[in-house]
């Protein structure tokens, strides 16, 4: 029973992380972007 509870909690946390990543991607943020536009190849502004 304890394993099932831990599995449900872990699944919930992973779901929240993925949801946050999708939301950030839609808002134009990216894990690859270091907010250093001086060295940016311009991919941040492509749609």
List the helices and strands and how they pair.
Layout: H1 2-26
Q: Termini, distance in Å?
A: 47 Å
The radius of gyration computed from the alpha-carbon positions, rounded to a whole number of angstroms, is 17 Å
**Residue runs with pLDDT of under 50 for 5 or more positions:** none
Percent of residues in helices: 40-55%
Question: Which class do the helix and strand fractions yield?
Answer: mainly alpha
Mean pLDDT metric: 79
Major beta-sheet overview: none
DSSP helical segment count: 1
- The global form is rod-shaped
Number of strands: 0
Question: What is the chain-wise order of helices and strands?
Answer: H
Percent of residues in beta strands? Answer: under 5%
Brief overview:
This protein has 47 residues and is mainly alpha-helical. It contains one helix and no strands. It has one helix at residues 2-26.
